Amino acid sequence: WFPAYIYICVVRGCNLSENSELWFTVKRNLFSSPILLDLLIASAKLPVNVWTLVAGVLYLTVVFALTLAITRSAEIAGFASLLLATTPSFLYWFKYNVYGAYTTEFTIIASLLAWGYGFARGSRRALLTGTILAVIAWFLTANGWLSLIVYGIYLLISVFKGVFSKESLYPVIALLVLTLPLNTALGILYVTQYHGFAYTLLLLSTAFYSVSHWLVNKVDKVSLKVFRVLAVIACFPIAYYTTLLASEIIGFPGVLEN
User: Fold this and answer.
1) How many other CB atoms are found less than 10 A from the CB of residue 4?
2) Could you read off the pLDDT tens digit of each residue along the chain, which spans 258 residues?
3) 116 burial class (0-12, 13-18, 19+ CB within 10 angstroms)?
4) Secondary structure element (H or E) that encloses residue 221, with its range
5) Structure pTM?
């Protein structure tokens, strides 16, 4: 109901920055919630049922593609999509007037698929596509920060295995510039602790990834292996406590839909 309220509120010309209709005793700045998708749909005067139908089809399509990439079986991929399409949660969230930033979360899966294809085939165009989709997910979805966490984990696995590729750094550089910094520059208030943690984790994993490669010819193999293990173990706690510290000092203005 929250996204539907935003849609109606935009059409009616309500004050979103000092909204007192949802909480009668407290005025709330709704721009601190993930409403960018709702604003785009309302501004384009796109019927809500059309968007939910398109988003649902796209969601099932990327689930099919992901399952196919993992299992190499069209039958299993088709069954996975059918299973998702008939689950109560899928049917509930994609009913008319029950939509929201989560209806764009297929972009997260699509970005991972594009990155995987790009690395497997050496396609920079696919890597660019995956990065663009990840940035779109960051701004339009409630949980777009997940793409950054997954990519950070990919870098840490590469650190642990001692694998290095310059192509892996191209999406990272774009993500580090076009997510949180651009978010701040544009004045978009939906930035939560989850966003801060995901960004910090990606930043740290990129640093460990680069340092691990730099140390290859500078230290012995045992020391290098110890560094790689410690880097993988330390990255998550450092990112977590750095985010908590930032939350206490500067705070995060974002408020989840629920």
Assistant:
1) 15
2) 777 788 888 888 888 888 777 665 677 888 888 889 888 988 888 887 888 888 889 999 999 999 999 999 999 999 999 998 898 878 877 776 677 767 788 999 999 999 999 999 999 999 999 999 999 999 998 889 999 999 999 999 999 999 999 999 999 999 999 999 999 999 999 999 999 999 999 999 999 999 999 999 899 999 999 999 999 999 999 999 999 999 999 989 988 766
3) middle
4) helix 221-249
5) 0.90
C-alpha span between 172 and 120 (Å, rounded) = 17
Tokens at residue 90, please?
């899928």
**Tokens 């989840």, located at residue:** 256
Nearest to 58 by CA among 145, 136, 131: 136
Task: Name the token pair of 187.
Answer: 């004045």
Residues in Cβ contact with 161 at an 8 Å cutoff, skipping those fewer than 6 apart: none
Which residue reads 């089809």 in tokens?
57
